[in-house]
Amino acid sequence: MTQVMVHILYTVTAFSCALVALLLPARTRASLSKKNSLDSAFLLLARWITIFCIADGMWGIFASNLVNNDTLLYISSFVFHLFAAFTPLVWLFFVLTYIGEFKLKNICFGAAAAIFLIELALLLLNYSSHSVFYVDDAGEYQTGPIRKFLFYAQYANYLLMAAVAIFGFIRNKKDSKDEKSYYSAVIAFTGAPILCGAFQLLYPDAPAYSIGYMLGFCIIYSFVITEMLEARIRESAQNYSANKAKTTFLFSMSHDIRTPLNAILGFTDIAIKHFDEKETAVDALGKIKISSGHLLELINEILEMSRIEAGKLKLTKDAMDLREMVAVTEQMGRALAIPKSINLEVNIEDLKNPYVFGDEMHFKEVLINVISNAIKYSNDGSSVKFTVTQADEDENGKTIYRFVVSDNGIGMSEEFLGHIYETFSREQTSTVSKQEGAGLGMSIVKRIIDVAGGRIDIQSKVGEGTSVTIELPLALMDEESIRIFTRKDAADEHERPVKFDDVFKGKRVLLVEDNELNREVATVLLNEAGMIVETADDGSIAVQKFAKDGPGYYDFILMDIQMPVMNGYEATKAIRVLPGGKNLPIIALSANAFEEDRKKSLDSGMDDHIAKPINLEELLDAMKMLL
Asked: Do the Cβ atoms of 227 and 31 come closer than 8 Å?
């Protein structure tokens, strides 16, 4: 094969590589955005490789003497070497963009740029020195003595790029959600540049750079870009489903919220118009209370779910007696079952170790949610069974406790069971089923159980009923912990007064609340319990009143949290340092109803935290404990 044919083959190969680099991204170009830095870096790489392969092919044309012009051959050779030196910088820029920020990013790019500048200087000096290449008297391209140095310099850049890729991915592996994508990216970013350099070192007179770049580019496209775009499509589909679910939820919630609101407004009008008819007025007020309770339940579920989705759910490991938790759950369940004449049957079987460590508040929330669903979706006069058993230890040395709630209610379809834990998911809207709810209950249940390391299984058939099995791994108390826990429990029972007749009569309370209506409601409730109520509409005023009236004047302070000038935390801290303020009972009354809110109140120096709307019985209970 003549030298001319070799150069023609060289040219055809280089132009073919340029065509591949040009067409390969075309099928996904519509999915790439110039506003995205990684997409822009990939498109830059694609365009540059295309340009380089074209320059490589043009060199083949002039080197073949098909166009016999020494000047054009020299210029095309200079451009080829310049582009070959610059390409590693473009490749490294893409690698660094993909990896993201890390401390050595600027140093690595600076080192690569320094190597390029050395190569550029040698190419500029080549016109007089002919040390890299030259065109001889016969019009043939010839290599100079330091041409190999340029290849080694470029290969050093590729090795640097491979090192950067490996270092960056090892550092960021903890952030990788997809193990396959992680290793694919490592292969692409380390294999592709080494492949490019190796091709040219082994075959210095072949279009090895173009072939190497094209193959490396194909590897990156196949392993990285395609998977990235597929991940975007999956995320887009998930976002679409989530948005659709939220739209459906908002449509449903507009009905669910308006239903109790309509009842509250309607029965308020009835109570006002029939104020002199005691029976009618009392009936209307009772229904207002029921509707208000349901509205509060809806709001609490929405807030709980938003808190969980924000990653704020943390379970405590407090000492607890499972028998007491089940007893409280049973009591709350019976309150729901009685209006429907449903028989709630509770069985505690083989509970050898009732004393455990766990988050009693959240576990009760899980069980009440499941039991209330069983009652809600069962026919009047039917039965619901709640069984608690102690199973074997798991592999972590914790004991498995199994809670089973079963009913013979309306059941669920197999299709809906696959979506039951999805946020805002309900098989039928309340408009159809006549059962109100936000579709958040089972989502909350599943998240709590997952955080606790447990499992939940639901078996259901339409028209036959549902059985929900929950398994929670709990650590057992040792004998010393049981003694401390039972002694504390007994002491609490002993200290609790048996009778509370007139216990609050004459007690003076400073009510700190910035909302006028809330102050009025709380004042009336406290007056009815026999207390003398003084008010302050800001924390700063409360501090002034306490400082002015002196120690012993107030028996309690009920403190709101969010107030315009001085909030409840700051006011409490200020009162605690005043004479007589250290031991004065201060209770937070706040719309901030989560466990972390309670902790903030206690950390600021308050004695207890009661969530609004005020439950008088709960508030009086807390106050009695502080007397």
From this structure: no
Q: Rounded to an integer, what distance in angstroms lies between the CA atom of residue 405 and that of residue 413?
A: 18
Whose CA is closest to 562, among 522, 609, 515?
515
Residue 44 makes CB contacts below 8 A (sequence gap 6+) with 90, 93, 94
With DSSP H G I counted as helix, E B as strand and the rest as coil, what are the percentages for the chain, rounded to 5?
A: 60, 15, 25
Sequence letter at residue 531: M
- Name the token pair of 473: 């791994």
What is the reported pLDDT for 603? 92
Treating both helix axes as pointing N-terminal to C-terminal, what angle do 208-220 and 3-23 enclose, rounded to 10 degrees? 20
Q: Measuring CA to CA, how many Å separate 88 from each of 2, 195, 255, 291, 576? A: 33, 12, 61, 69, 67
Global confidence as pTM: 0.49
Token pair listed for 159: 């090795």
Task: Check residue 270 and give its pLDDT.
Answer: 86
User: DSSP class of residue 428?
Assistant: S
CA separation for the pair 5, 104 (Å, rounded): 47
- Identify which of 185, 192, 182, 184 has the alpha carbon closest to the alpha carbon of residue 161: 192
Rg (CA), the chain: 38
Alpha carbons 527 and 504: distance in angstroms, whole number? 10
Residue 2 has what pLDDT? 57
Which position has the token pair 């059962």?
Answer: 435
Residue 352, token pair as written in the block: 């050898």
Q: What does the alpha-carbon distance between residue 489 and residue 354 come to, in Å, rounded to a whole number?
A: 14
Q: Look at residue 350 in the predicted model and tell me its pLDDT.
A: 74
**Under 8 Å CB-to-CB from 450, ≥6 apart: which residues?**
none
Q: For residues 376 and 412, is the Cβ–Cβ distance under 8 A?
A: no
3-state secondary structure of 384: strand
**How much is the pLDDT for 495?**
46
Q: Are strands 355-358 and 318-321 parallel, antiparallel or unpaired?
A: antiparallel
Residue from 611, 615, 560, 553 nearest 584 by CA: 553
Express each pLDDT in 28-62 by its tens digit: 666 676 677 878 888 888 888 888 888 888 887 88
Spans in the chain with pLDDT lower than 50: 1, 174-176, 429-434, 494-500
Q: Which two tokens stand for residue 362?
A: 């959240």
First CA to last CA across the chain, in angstroms?
107
Is omega for the bond preceding 204 within 30 degrees of 0, making it cis? no
How far apart (Å, rounded) are the C-alpha atoms in residues 407 and 411? 9
DSSP state at residue 223: I
- 428-434, Cβ contacts within 8 angstroms, sequence gap of 24 or more: 429/252, 429/255, 430/252, 430/255, 430/256, 430/259, 431/252, 431/255
pLDDT, tens digit (0-9, with 9 covering 90-100), for 255-273: 567 667 777 888 888 888 8
The per-residue pLDDT for 571 is 94
Which pairs from 54-59 meet CB under 8 Å and 24+ separation?
54/14, 54/15, 54/18, 55/79, 55/80, 55/83, 56/14, 56/17, 56/18, 56/80, 56/83, 56/207, 56/209, 56/210, 57/10, 57/11, 57/12, 57/14, 57/15, 57/18, 57/207, 57/210, 58/11, 59/14
